[in-house]
Amino acid sequence: MPVTPIPLSDRLALLSQRYNRDYRGDPFELPAEVESLDIFRDWTAGKLQQRIASPFWDLAKPKKNQRCLDLGCGVSFLIYPWLTWEALFYGRDISTVACEALKSRAPQLNSKLFKGVTVGGAHFLEDYESNFFDLVIATGFSCYFPLDYWQQVIDAVKTVLKPGGQFIFDVINPDAPLAEDWAILETYLGAEVFLEPLSEWERLLKGNAQKLSSRSGELFMLYKLSL
């Protein structure tokens, strides 16, 4: 029998719950076979994120006074060198815990560069002005949604990005040695993962980008789109 797709609102709620628990440091009870995976031990030791995070600045480093929108930002402003870049940071995330952490701590770091954070999905950007941002970033979460959702996101990004602006985006490389175990771990942490072929992603991205460049990582492929 065909599997009934999960409604987008439910998928967003589940992902929000997964990351709220993570940011709060809540314990996750996982099966022994998952805890036996090397990737689980790296995750519990706090080493996994360092290995797999996409260095978006290698393809498009934020510049002084540029308006940058970080979708799925987490606590990006607290851990990446936004102060060195002197770029204006706008964040959006579905985790209320991450957003509250930014609201309470980011202004203490630099209230001029931190322009605020909103709670919500990457597909709905009507909170922002049209043609407002120089750079939009969406890394680390494309795998939680099907391809048709990302067409919605790209359409939304096109409305808020300035002409000539850039969109930085990453996707799971399903052929990477880490991919299958990472998908298993994430599923047990509460977030279903889609391991789409890179060819399907590149068909989607090339169909929307005037120019496309990429860089490979241990788990993710990082893309820069000129929309």
List descriptors.
227 residues; alpha/beta; seven-stranded mixed sheet; 10 helices; globular
Q: What's the helix and strand layout?
A:
Layout: H1 8-24, H2 32-35, H3 38-44, H4 48-52, E1 67-71, H5 76-79, H6 82-85, E2 88-93, H7 96-110, E3 114-119, E4 133-138, H8 147-160, E5 161-172, H9 179-189, H10 198-206, E6 211-216, E7 220-226
Q: How much strand content do the residues show?
A: 15-25%
| Gross morphology | globular
Helicity level: 25-40%
Question: What is the tally of beta strands?
Answer: 7
Estimate the mean pLDDT confidence: 94
User: What is the annotated CATH architecture?
Assistant: 3-Layer(aba) Sandwich
CATH superfamily: Vaccinia Virus protein VP39
The biggest sheet, with number of strands, parallel, antiparallel or mixed sense and barrel status, is: 7 strands, mixed
Q: What low-confidence regions span 5 or more consecutive residues with pLDDT below 50?
A: none
The first-to-last residue Cα distance is: 40 Å
Give, in spatial order, the strands making up the sheet with the most strands: 3-2-1-4-5-7-6
Q: Structural class, please? A: alpha/beta
The number of helices is 10
Q: What is the number of domains?
A: 1
State Rg. Answer: 17 Å
CATH uppermost class = Alpha Beta
CATH topology: Rossmann fold
3D architecture notes:
This protein is α/β, with parallel strands linked by helices. The protein has a single domain (8-226), classed as Rossmann fold, CATH 3.40.50.150. The protein has 10 helices and 7 strands. It has helices at residues 8-24, 32-35, 38-44, 48-52, 76-79, 82-85, 96-110, 147-160, 179-189, 198-206; strands at residues 67-71, 88-93, 114-119, 133-138, 161-172, 211-216, 220-226. Strands 3-2-1-4-5-7-6 form a 7-stranded mixed sheet, with helices on both faces. α8 links the parallel β4 (133-138) and β5 (161-172). The N and C termini lie far apart (40 Å).
